[in-house]
Amino acid sequence: MYIGRVSGTVVATIKNELFEGRKLLVVDKLDLGGQPTSKYDIAVDMVQAGEGDLVLVLDEGNSARQVVDREPDGAIRAVIVGIVDEVEVEGLAFDVEGLRFLPRRRTASSLG
Prior knowledge:
This protein has one helix at 61-67; strands spanning 2-10, 24-30, 36-45, 54-58, 79-83, 88-89, 92-95, 100-103. It is mainly beta and 112 residues long. It has one domain (2-85): CATH 2.40.50.220. A hairpin with a 2-residue loop joins strand 6 and strand 7 (92-95).
């Protein structure tokens, strides 16, 4: 599973019946700093994601097939299972728009 950024769509007029009625999106895999890597997936969209969205991608075939209810058979390897609103790692907040980690702001509730 990884966090990625939707960079495009795939349109195919002739395709396996499994993909009928399903949107296919190109998702660029991001590193831990929020920067694109050279890797990408073509993923089945299960959450109405769109170009530019930061998404959570399940990229293990068996689990992906279970999400679309096609286990044990099916030609699906990657599925978009969430649109990311916020990421927090060890006191750093991920700036979803700027694709970078920022020092987490202290609030009255976090001061204890």
